[in-house]
Amino acid sequence: MDNVKIKIEKKSENNIDPSYSMIITADGKVQYNGVRNVKAQGHRVIQISQADVLEMVDRFKMIYFFSLKDKYVSDNQNEPMTIVSIQVNDKFKQIEFSKYSRAPHSLNNLISQIQMITKTRELIE
Question: Which domains, ranges and CATH numbers included, belong to the chain?
């Protein structure tokens, strides 16, 4: 699997919810950037195994990520937003969802699993 890119971006304007982004590539490179309400602000690079990257790709497949809607947003424009995307070769999907929308719980579970696999949870919480 040569061409894999996973992106997660959490945006929040309040003083509670974390704002950060991370990009994970096929070679296991994790680029984290903590913006606000996180333990570690700024840019960090973490290396994980390619097997871990493949595990994350499998987790996207397990929740049928490519079959989900592109957006799950509520009417409240001030809610924290999450954007998660994956590219595997020429297949790409991005989902945007707000904190209190009716997004499937599997999306938040997926992000938690990615945080555990990439060891970025301790940088965020």
Answer: 4-119 (3.30.1560.10)
